[in-house]
Design brief:
It is built from 4 helices and 10 strands; from the N terminus they run H-E-E-E-E-E-H-H-E-E-E-E-H-E. With about 170 residues, it is an alpha+beta fold. Strands 1-2-3-4-5 form a 5-stranded antiparallel sheet, covered by helices on one side. A 5-stranded antiparallel sheet has the order 9-8-7-6-10, with helices on one face. The longest helix has 16 residues, at about 75-90. The termini are far apart.
């Protein structure tokens, strides 16, 4: 387990993160280049060593309702892995379409399946579901019909995996 100084040292080693001191001696770290509205990567790193890292875009990572993971007992290697994956996930939003592009093309955005975004999910029988991020929620569609809605990418990924679906391979 890392103490607060060691956690802060790891977080400060990421030049893309900006430190923001908050109340009660706690520290947040923001990723201003995020492709999402979500900018906070590290939340309430506390002098007692407690704190949270955003992992709401990561499949197979158990998070709280807001998409955060408690890092109190994380090793340096585990913390770096989580930070690397989170920053990578926040760097690309497959659902973001520039207004000019959308206006010129006049088609719906194409979702590229990735490990961190939405896209087409397929089961062994060839059935497909589409995962989309809209209005701060993750939606699972069967054709044009809404199947499920989730607050975090992690919950959506877990549901799809539990139902036997996997992301369609990129072509």
């Amino acid at each position: 387990m890392l103490n607060v100084e060691q956690k802060l040292e790891v977080l400060q080693s990421y030049p893309q993160l900006q430190r923001k001191d908050v109340s009660l001696g706690r520290v947040n770290f923001h990723y201003e280049e995020s492709a999402y509205d979500k900018k906070i990567v590290a939340l309430h790193i506390h002098p007692n060593g407690n704190g949270y890292i955003y992992a709401g875009l990561l499949p197979n990572v158990e998070t709280d309702a807001k998409g955060f993971v408690n890092i109190r007992d994380y090793s340096e290697a585990d913390l770096r892995t989580l930070l690397d994956e989170t920053i990578q996930a926040m760097s690309h939003n497959p659902n973001a379409v520039e207004f000019e592009e959308q206006e010129q093309v006049k088609v719906a955005p194409v979702l590229v399946p990735t490990s961190t975004g939405g896209g087409i999910w397929v089961d062994e029988e060839g059935h497909t579901l589409t995962l989309k991020y809209e209005d701060d929620m993750w939606y699972v569609y069967s054709g044009d019909n809404l199947d499920m809605a989730f607050e975090t990418r992690s919950e959506a990924g877990e549901y799809l995996h539990d139902e036997g679906f996997k992301p369609q391979a990129q072509v």
